[in-house]
Amino acid sequence: LENLQPEIKKLAERLRYEVAVRGKQLGWSEKVARFHFKKNLRRIITELYIRDNCHPFKATLLVWVQVPMWVCVSVALRNCSVGAVDSEVQEQFSAGGTLWFTDLTAPDSTWILPVSLGLVNLLIVEIFASQKMKVSTFQKLATNFFRVVSVVMIPVAASVPSSMALYWLSSSFVGLSHNLLLRSPAFRRLCCIPRTKSDSDTPY
Q: Per residue in 52-81, pLDDT tens?
């Protein structure tokens, strides 16, 4: 998508000239000319997305799978920890922890898991923020919103069973690892990911 922007800009300038010429020939008003420009620009951009197989909607597909799964697993862990009908399951959870969180049915009284979760989530947000060269007002608001959510998740994670906090931390840590790995120039070359203007040879 980033690599397409110069081509889109060039085609948009050419299209604006063609619409202006056509508009003069047919006596279009400014409103009609703008309508034809936007309509044709959308068609051109869609054709480029199809050509390069990079429609922005594809980037959201993972979210539609990931979020419901995250919610379902969280609810399942909560039910196994505090609301299990079979007491044997709850007993296994109460003795199935490790290190300082030996009881997965109880909240982490040390706050190590919740604070780690908040820090990892904040790190993910900052990595995304650092990738943007030009930031719109909406992107600034979204970044600040996710920063607040990351901090709010700390007391939330401290009030739920350790099994849930551990799952949330593990999920966030995997997300952080993916983000760091995808910033590696060697890994990007290995996966044949095209170079962009925002890429850095020293991303870390």
A: 888 888 878 888 888 899 999 999 888 888
Distance of alpha carbon 104 from alpha carbon 78, whole angstroms: 10
pTM of this structure: 0.71
- What's the CA gap between 49 and 45, in Å, rounded? 6
pLDDT of residue 147: 92
Rounded to 5 degrees, φ, ψ at 4 are -80, -20
Q: What is the rounded (10 degree) CA torsion for 142, 145, 149, 151?
A: 120
Could you tell me which residues are beta bridge partners of residue 98?
A: 101
The token duo for 46 is: 């869609």
- pLDDT tens per residue, range 94-152: 777 778 778 888 888 888 999 999 999 999 998 888 776 666 787 788 888 989 999 99
Tell me the C-alpha distance between 32 and 134, whole Å.
31
Q: 90: which residues sit within 8 A by CB, 6+ positions away?
A: 80, 81, 82, 84, 105
Residues 115 and 109: their CA atoms lie apart, in Å, by 11
Phi, psi of 99 (to 5 degrees): 50, -120
CB atoms < 10 A from the CB of 114, how many? Answer: 23
Q: How many CB atoms lie within 10 A of CB 157?
A: 24
Task: Extract the tokens encoding 201.
Answer: 């040879």
* H runs (alpha helix) in the chain: 5-26, 30-52, 58-82, 87-94, 112-131, 137-159, 162-181, 185-190
